[in-house]
Amino acid sequence: MEEVALHNIRQSEGLLDALQPLKQKIEKRLNLPEYRKDTKHISLNNNLLQRLTLAAGLSLNHKRNWTEIEKLSMESLRIHETTFTKFNLQQLWSSLIKYRYNHVEIDWSVAANRSRIINFEMRKGLEYLLDDDNLDKWLSITTKQGKASFGNIPLLDLNIGSYQDDIPATLNLNARDIPNTQILVAGSTGSGKSNLLAVLMREMRSLTVETAYPVNFLFFDYKGEFSDPANRSWFSHFEIDDSAILDPIKEPLPFSPFKNFVGKTQNEINLYATELANAIVAIDNARMSANMSNRLSEAVIAAYRTTKNKPISFEIILNEYINLQGEKDKAKDDSIKSVLKQLIRNNLFAKEDNIDLINNSFVVKMDGYPKDGPLAKAIVYFIISKLNTIYESLPKQAVSEECVEIRHFTIIDEAHYMLDFDNKPLRDLIAVGRNKGLSIILATQNMDSYKSKFFDFYANAQYPLIMKQQSITDSIIKDLFGVSGSEFQEIKEAISGLALGELILKDSTSIALGMGKKYKKIKVTRFI
């Protein structure tokens, strides 16, 4: 007897919303009324809830009616295969399903049939667990646990949509032969860029939250879509809750953006002072003389003397900058003072670290600031700088026979605002990530943005994903796909013809073989 194929299974409409009462009921049983600051509330993920309700549904000994099952309306979102592959139980699930449906004539090769049956069982199991004290009975069952896959590094083969004929389209991020994990997205307004980012986040989280190697993310929400209360239901797909939102307008971001140099050399402080001075100027495109630049670097060095090499603050930098000025200039504002005062006045950062940026996921609400303004740039710049500091202290990523560990994604929507100056922290983060388990996703409106005069992001990206463009630069297509003549024209026409939610990417195999189309076209799963 062939196994029931447990892949390409779609969710029925409203399934995740329907699971919420069960999630709340179980979490109420598992969690204390209050927690100390250093402890964490237990939050159940969707994979576990789906697996629990499927098991409960299949345990019910009633005759299945196909007429009732085929009425289920299905969404385009898929149920992750890890729901069924956890603990290597695929054969068991298949046997249970066929046992319960041995009296029904079913074509098991049809994915829609499998999807409806699995969703039907989940919904019946949900009804059962929410009825009377059935949940208490289930939670009180004990059994010996076999060898689990919890400790294995998960393979991040992200299912983002489909090729022609509904063939699943995946991006493999962490197989041993993948050189890096950077993803670049270029798509004009209305191309489906935000939906693609949401699909990527959903995939990375769903594939890893039930393992010892969860992939966390930090998402810069320039448009405010993801932090909008009206869209808060999206969070359940990312396995996060409202506590993930960081809104610097309401309260300072809960960490210091500055490095701690206790026990470090003076030369390290000097180099950092120069880099920080250049950043403060670049953030606001401030014009300054060589004397002003040197004075700002000296002010940073003096600030660290004041704190005895502990993290400094913008207030201390400003005070030291003024101290280094001549008497007649102390009361006057210049471009440096204006930038520092603006950063101080808006109180963007706390004085000490109160959160773990790496081992949790966060959404930074950015829509309260002009996208190209100094405050938005300062938030992104200093958070990325902070991530760099954290990554410097991390051990190398874990490695298995099949894949390597991914710890964290930094996701910057509207990234073109951070690419028009020499953004050293961003470049460093990309370089460090190769050995520390970092992946970065940048999204811009136009593919030209990645050909910055300061850094060629295309040369460092595993997956450049091209969506609908307002304008197409010939030289970038030729460089990116390595084509000319008719092949170049074909790709250009393919980009021009992209519809909402479609993208093309390089077909590395065809390029290496020198035959066939040099690109693939993908229809992205509709999520938001």
What does this structure look like?
- The chain has 18 helices and 13 strands.
- It has helices at about 15-30, 45-60, 65-70, 80-85, 90-100, 110-130, 135-140, 195-205, 235-240, 265-285, 290-305, 315-325, 335-345, 375-390, 425-435, 475-480, 485-495, 510-515, and strands at about 10, 75-80, 155-160, 170, 185, 215-220, 245, 360-365, 410, 440-445, 465, 500-505, 520-525.
- It has a 7-stranded parallel sheet.
- Strand 3 and strand 4 form a beta hairpin.
Kindly state the number of beta strands.
Answer: 13
CATH fold title of the largest domain: Rossmann fold
Beta-strand proportion: 5-15%
Largest sheet: 7 strands, parallel
The quaternary state of the protein chains shown equals single chain
| Structure classification | alpha/beta
Gap between N and C termini: 39 Å
Quickly count the helices.
18
- Broad shape: globular
- Which spans have pLDDT < 50 for at least 5 consecutive residues? 142-149
Give the fraction of residues assigned to helices. Answer: 25-40%
